[in-house]
Each structure stands twice: as C-alpha cells, then as structure tokens.
Amino acid sequence: MSTFHYASIRLVFYFEPYFRPFVNSMVILVTGGAGYIGSHTAVELLSQGHKVVVLDDLSNACEESLSRVERICNRKVHFVHGNVCDPNCLTSLFSRFKFDAVIHFAGCKAVGESVRKPLDYYHNNVTGSLFLLEAMKKFDVKKFVFSSSATIYGQKAPVPYVETLKTGGALNPYGSSKWMVEQILIDAAKADSELSVAMLRYFNPIGAHPSGLIGEDPLGVPNNLLPFIAQVAVGKREVLSVFGDDYETPDGTCIRDYLHVVDLAEGHVKALNWLMGHKGAEAFNLGTGTGFSVLDVVKAFEAASGVVIPYQVVSRRSGDLAVFWADATKAKAVLGWEAKRTLNDMMIDTWRWQSLNPNGYADT
Ligand code: UFG
Questions:
Q1: Could you list the residue range(s) of the whole structural domain that residue 200 is in?
Q2: 20 to 30 A Cα–Cα from 1, which one of 45, 210, 297, 340?
Q3: Whose CA is nearest to atom 11 of ligand 1?
C-alpha cells in the first residue's frame, strides 16, 4: 500500500464524525467497488447514508469511477488500492476500520478467460474469498454479501431458475469458482451461528446510472452483449456478431434475463438490511423474471438510441445456453426487492453512458 493510502486512511479517522451523518449509518467494505456493479452499489450505499470503503486492485476498473460516484452523491468514498488475495493488506484494512458488513465483488469474471487461466480464477475468486472470510473472523465482522451468479445453476437446470434447484455443474472455472465460494459460505455459516450471508445470484446486469457518469467500461473487446452493442453504436466496433440464430427460441437467438444495474445495486442494499436481522446463509436470485432475445435487445437499443446497429449472424458461442431467466419471487418476498426498471430504461441509460463517454473512463 502506498504512503498516499496510509495518509487517506488517517484522514478518515480524523474526520470520522463527519462521515456518519445518518442515524443508522454503517461502515461497509466494498471489495471490487471501483468496478461496474461495485460502483453502482457504492452510490446506493452512500445515498442511504452508509460510509463506503472500497478495496480494489484496479486490475479491471478505474479509480475515476469512484470520483464519479462522489460527484453523484456529493459524499466521499474511501479508496484503498489493494487485493483481497493479500492477507497483509486485509489485516491492515480491518485494523483501521470497524466494518459493519462486507460486500464482496472483487474477482475475475470473464468466462472464456477462465477456461484459459483456471488457476488464476480459482486463486482470485476462491482464495480471495477465503482470505476475506478469515479477516472477517479475526476482526469479528459477521455480515457478508456475496456477488454470485446465475451460472451456478449449471447446464441442465430447468427455467425459470429458482433458488431451491440443485446447483453446480458449471461448464467453466469462472462458474465453478462462484459455486465453490457459495459452498464455503454455507459451511462457514453452519459453523458460526453469528454469521449472516446473502449470496446474490445475478442474471444479466446491463444499463448504467441515469446521470451518465458511471457505467460499464470493459477492457479490450467486450465479451458481453450490451457493451458490444454500445461500442458499435459509437463507432468503436463495426458490426455486432450475433452468436447463433438456430436455438429453439421464437427468433432463434438466445434468451436472457437482463436487469438494470441500478436495480441490482438496490438489491445489495436490501440484502444488507435483511442481514441485520438474520443469521445463516441464504441465496437470492436477482433478475426481472422476464427473458429477452439477443435480437429483442438489438431492436430495443435501436429504438432508444435512434442508431442502427449493423449485425451479422455467426456460429454459436461455445457454452451458451439457449434460454434462462430468474424466478425472483424469493427476493421480493424476503428482501422486499424487485426490479423496477424496464428494458427501455436499460437501453436509454446504456446509451447515455456510452455516448457521453465513448472511451469509458479514459475520456476523463
Ligand atoms: N452475444 C452475442 N454477441 C456478443 C455477445 C453476446 O450474440 O457479442 C449473445 C450471447 O451469445 C448470449 C447473449 O448475447 O446469448 C448474452 O451474452 P452475454 O455474454 O452478455 O451474457 P451471458 O448470458 O453469456 O453471461 C452472463 C455473464 C456471466 C454469467 C452469466 C450467467 O456475463 O458472467 O451471465 O449469469 F455467468
């Protein structure tokens, strides 16, 4: 950790009273908080009056996202440059802040890359989570929100996916690493009756904050559909490749449950509130419960942006499932959360972000 970060931590203590402006405010560690979902969650936490400490190694994120979060909220984020796989960094962090809860986003998430670099994925995602849980145990922090994925339902699960389905059997190390961490959390919560864990199984988060200040800023060629479409729209990519139109779906293209990243971020705040009154580990699907095809999304983006998206149909992408979407009943019943924003909202906000920041945070 650099001198600068020590200095910023000392400042935090000095000004501590100013960072607790709300009665029920908590101090939350957000690992990976400079990334796409993490930065949107930081906005929601700050706007609820919580103090946010971000730990991020910036391997797939940019510190500028946190300056933008501060602009949106007019409140400070405490940034620590470091990695969850570094136990010394965690010890130093947990010694300086008394966290009420941890929200764990930090990890690698590219499916294809995970097949090429399985050890990196297991190390970052599984070992990193273990180190974090050990630090929490040592410093008596008992609330944990985990960034899980619909991919843990595996290849053969019937749709819609419901939390009671058997999990496991993911086709790639990324999915397996998420599943392994869920198993670790379930066992950890069985062994420690004080531990409360929410495992949030995301479907397909897209969109951006309506301010246009923060959004998804992938490194290199985007793997995911929406960032690719958005980059075609601003002229950074020529044409969208649609991976297969011969699936058993109405238009032949794959169907997914796309949800607005701000809805997803709000889901983390709801989960955090729920954790305060509960013990044990629980899984929740965060999705809308509705599926849209690749071509539905292309049309919706064109309608929202007024830009025509040239596309070509190419062969199927290995490992893609034809259809899946969430049964999100449990999140509504237990957390009081449901996705409110429409596909059109997701497209409008994606377009605002991408057109204002054609090169992402690099435009700053
Ligand atoms: N697609 C294209 N062209 C592209 C990119 C994607 O046609 O350039 C298609 C895919 O084939 C798929 C759909 O768009 O049918 C969505 O693909 P994404 O890559 O955006 O999302 P996935 O559903 O494949 O994966 C996402 C996350 C994973 C997570 C998974 C399940 O990226 O991390 O959902 O939760 F594991």
A1: 27-207+258-287
A2: 45
A3: 243
Asked if the model's pLDDT at residue 243 lies above 60, the reply is yes
Total count of domains within the chain:
1
Ligand 1 atom closest to 316 (CA): 11
Its sign, for the CA torsion 104, 106, 109, 115, is: negative
pLDDT tens digits, 259-287: 999 999 999 999 999 999 999 999 999 99
Look at residues 1, 44, 20, 71 and name the one whose alpha carbon lies nearest to residue 271.
44
Supply the CATH number for residue 47's domain: 3.40.50.720
Q: Is it true that the peptide bond before 222 is cis, omega within 30 degrees of 0? A: no
Predicted local confidence at residue 135, as pLDDT: 98
Express each pLDDT in 170-214 by its tens digit. Answer: 889 999 999 999 999 999 999 999 999 999 999 999 999 999 999
Strands (E), the chain: 27-31, 51-56, 78-81, 101-104, 143-149, 196-202, 204-206, 240-243, 255-256, 258-260, 280-286, 292-293, 311-314
Residue 36 forms part of a structural domain: yes
Please give the average per-residue pLDDT across 43-51, as a whole number. Answer: 97
Given a cut of 60, is residue 247 above it in pLDDT? yes
Measured from the Cα of 294, ligand 1's closest atom is 14
Question: How far apart (Å, rounded) are the C-alpha atoms in residues 140 and 275?
Answer: 15
CA 64–ligand 1 middle distance (angstroms): 26
| Residue at 302 is within a domain | no
Is residue 22 predicted with pLDDT exceeding 80? no
pTM of the model as a whole:
0.94
**Which one of 105, 243, 284 would you pick to mutate in the ligand 1 pocket, going by the greatest count of ligand atoms within 8 A of its CB?**
243
Residue 55 belongs to some domain of the structure:
yes
The answer to whether residue 73 is domain-embedded is yes
Cα–Cα distance, 331 to 194 (Å, whole number): 22
Q: State which amino acid sits at residue 37.
A: I
Residue 15 has pLDDT above 50, yes or no: no
Q: Candidates 202, 224, 236, 240: which one to mutate for ligand 1, based on the most atoms within 8 Å of Cβ?
A: 224
Distance 225 CA to ligand 1 centre (A): 6
- The rounded Å distance from CA 266 to ligand 1 centre is 22
Q: Which of 167, 245, 256, 323 to mutate to test the pocket of ligand 1 (most atoms within 8 A of CB)?
A: 256
pLDDT at position 332 over 70:
yes
